[in-house]
Amino acid sequence: MAARVVVVSPGPGRIAGETIIDAPLPRPPGFRTTEVFRTGAEAVSAHLLRGGEERAT
């Protein structure tokens, strides 16, 4: 996972959200099992959901 994840909504592309992942680079082995990864993945998923909802309305 990158240090910064930006989610862009479908056309016209707008920034639907941004998540900063505050963890050392390079990511250590097992990073995907950490609380930081889980929290970041949940935040990115929420941005993706909201970005998709913008198009549906």
Biggest sheet strand order reads 1-2
The counted number of beta strands is: 2
- Termini separation (Å)? 30 Å
What is the helix content?
25-40%
CA-based gyration radius:
13 Å
**Count of runs of 4 or more consecutive helical residues:** 1
Quick one: biggest sheet?
Answer: 2 strands, antiparallel
Low-confidence stretches: none
* Secondary-structure content class: alpha+beta
Strand portion: 15-25%
Please state the overall shape, judged from the principal axes of the Cα atoms: elongated
Order of helices and strands: EEH
- Indicate how many domains the architecture comprises: 1
Global mean pLDDT: 89
Short account of what is shown:
Helix content is about 40%, strand content about 20%. The chain is an alpha+beta fold and about 55 residues long.
How would you describe this structure to a colleague?
It is built from one helix and two strands, in the order E-E-H. The chain is of the alpha+beta class. A two-stranded antiparallel ribbon has the order 1-2. The longest helix has 22 residues.
List keywords for this structure.
alpha+beta, 57 residues, elongated, 39% helix, two-stranded antiparallel sheet
Q: What is the topological layout?
A:
Blueprint: E1 4-8, E2 15-20, H1 35-56
Antiparallel strand pairs: 1-2
